[in-house]
Fold these 3 entries.
Entry 1:
Amino acid sequence: MQTIKIDIEDTLYQSIIDKGINVQEKLKDMIYDLMNDDYPSISTAEAKKRVFDAVQRYENKKDIYRSYDDNFKKEMDQYIDSL
């Protein structure tokens, strides 16, 4: 078993204690989520095939691709700038 050390501001730590949050359990959950995104693994060969197929569909114009309209771009830029 390994130990992970984190530095937390005193006020945040006190808030965690006051709320009765089990930090160790939350960290275990978070680390599990980082390791398992619930998507099935695929092989490198399968990944290459999917990319190849997508490129073929694009080059053969079998799929419809649309660019975002100017309004959407402006809204997204404003949203990103607000973060």
Entry 2:
Amino acid sequence: MEDLSVIKNNQENYLIFFFFIFLCFSLAIHKNIFIQDWSSNFDMDIIIVSNSLSILNNKFQSFFDHPGFTTILFFSLYLEILNSLNMFSFNLVDINQSSFLLNNISELIFHLRIFNLISIGLLLQTFFLLFQNIINNKLYSFLVTLALFFSYDFLSYNFFPVRTETFSLLFLNLMFISIFYKKLNKIFFLFFGIFLSFALFSKIQVILLIFIYLLIFSRIDKSILFYIKKSKFFRLNIVLNIIIGIFLYYTFHNILDTLIYFFLLNALNIFFYNFEKTIKFEDYIFIFLGFSLLFIFINIFGYDINNINTVFTPLTSSLRWVQEKYLLFNLFNHGIQNFIFEIEFYKNIKNYLIITFYLILLFFLKFKSIEQKYYYYVIFISIFILWAIFSMRSGFLRYGIYILPVFYLLFAKILTLQNFDNKKKILIFLILINLFVNFSFISNKYNAKDNTSITKDLCKNKINLNSKALINYYFSINNNNELNKFCENFMKLYN
């Protein structure tokens, strides 16, 4: 009977996953994603395709800003699989030809869009499994996942075009899903370390999100500090973390980046010890082995060492992209009242307002203890702090791909603490509200764009250092000879 229950549970999970895939592809077809020109998103689409081809050909990367390696690596493997199945009109053996990228870029980006939608389907499935672990109800978990999906700010900048946040969040979710489905042994910690490295090698900003996840999924135990003081496991880890911190500081020469990793490692120690007090140090250190496997892979196969430098300098690398106009003190200098009294401001943050309103309502309901209530206040405030930090890069109160999920995870967590019978109605109403306020995202089609003129202008001014750098950056071009051949081929094709 138990085996039948497991089989039925797995079948239901597969059905839900295929529904998410169907949902993603249906919305993509409706929004005309597959008939868009390859140049319609002159950013990450081109970067991921060109860098994936480049690492397949000669391991060169032009893009490692944050660092994006996981997405680039997995798409290159995806291309190899499709090529082995003869799914292309070309053959990857011709990849070293100078005209290969331009001759086949439309087909390559078409497959990148399919790859992205499959990734989003997987991401939604991981959120469903996280919600299921919290709520312990498949229907409620499915409804919360749908509510999150229909929130415009969650996937609007990742649904089209392709971006690296999807994979960072996917592997972050897998880290925490594995906790609830596996015993805390050597194999578990090995895979946890692998997932952690894949998350960080996709987008380093996810390192800050890990702290919020640790708070959300931690068990509330006031006695934890008492046990930590007597724990051999924790004492050994403190020594190990100090050694790692010293190594990072003397290797990368940045105290802030060293501290963020030192705090992360100690937070993980506390989290796992709180989760299972019988945890063994000799098992736990397999996290470091799993985490280092990707570094070994990069070094052995000659991939760009800048990927590793970026991962170990998360704050320094992120601060390069901070835009002064988005700094919070500028918001106050320009008069916050100008935002508060503008309707457009509330339209831009409507999805955040909906979920925070739900959370505030739940905070008024009964908790088991005042400490429990304060604990969730701390998480709520922490999310807002993280939201403000991310705003410095992309705009005031933005970055929904990272912020909205943690709001929804907190919502699911608090929802389970309440003893009332209308949870299904609340969740259905949440979905309907999200559908209503985000109807334009769901119903509107993407406008057809042709941005080939951008590359034309860059090629016409290729002597200019800035134009040259941008061509190299977007199309993963390694030297001047390749640059000249690329521009010559491009002007023949698109003049």
Entry 3:
Amino acid sequence: MYTVRRVIFTMLLGIFILVGHGFPQEGEKVKILRKTSPKPQEKENVVPEAEKKKEEPQEEKRKVSLRRMSEKGDAEAETPPLEYGRHSLLIGARSALAFTSSAKENYNGFSLSPDFALRGEYVYRRHYMALFDLGYNQGRYRLIEPDIYNPRQEGIARADYIRSALLFGARYNLGELKFPRFLAEKKALSKFYAYSHLGPYFSYLLSSELEVMPQYSTAGLYDYSPYALPFVWGLQASVGFEMQIVKIMSFFEFSYVRALSKNFRDTRSLVFVTSATAEQNFMLSVGAKYQVMVR
């Protein structure tokens, strides 16, 4: 009974609603309300936070990579100064032109003599050095007879030597200068060194000859080996500058060489007469060396 009443009540309620709102006219569409989701907005070019966090490390890595490439390019463009450890070893070669004269009164001016040598150099704590030269030297000596002879003949004595030198010294990096102020600690000078060294040299005779000038009656070329001493020794003092070019050290050197023994004994012959000779010369050298060890 209760159910019948409920059905009748529901029907009457429906009729009342239809009468109150009216029926739809012909051609009129019934609007059906549906629950719809809001229209999505157009996507903007906005990177989500999660993607931003992913891109930030990648961007940082890219910047680091570009920075390293730039530093590498700078390093290639500007070679850093050579590193000298506690012990360093360099090998190289030099050539020289010597202005040779005699320490005796029988010498008649200077003459030019060639000199070539291989060089080995040991550097201790960057500043102290010991080096050994071994090479070829041709001494040329302009000799003249004593003034008791008339005319006084002139000649050129040549002597070929194997020459060695053992020198000790010190070097200083110009990039560490404290004075004068305008040059103090200039980075551009860090590849330049000034140095000096001193030590003995030894020469072993290979051959010798004497050329008497053509204006004299005894003009000609003679074997002078009987009057040339087989061993000569003396002292050498040098000052110089080094400059780094890429990974090679080039150097320019000025030396004074003084024999403490005689090159030639007294000459008494029918061709030429002169007293004993001991050499002295001023030598200009240029060369290059390469670092083969550093510890």
